[in-house]
Design brief:
Length: 74
């Protein structure tokens, strides 16, 4: 079903499984939120409790424009 919305949304839909021991209160539920691959990095930073650096190796970085996928974990 990864191409189920191709004609409407202009992209593909792939399922993802996220596991985080002792970090996700919900158990076994199926979530239907849409997220994008660009939400993975903000999620990792959010879970790790760190901020993305504004400058890395002398190169200024653009701020992340996506959001963390952490909110449906609870």
């Amino acid at each position: 079903m990864f191409k189920r919305y191709l004609q409407y949304s202009g992209g593909t839909c792939d399922p993802v499984v996220i596991s985080r021991l002792k970090g996700i209160k919900a158990r076994g539920e199926i979530r239907s939120q849409y997220h994008y691959s660009t939400d993975i990095v903000p999620t990792i930073f959010d879970i790790a409790g760190v901020q993305m650096p504004k400058v890395y190796r002398g190169v200024e970085k653009f701020p992340l424009s996506r959001l963390s996928m952490r909110y449906p974990f609870d």
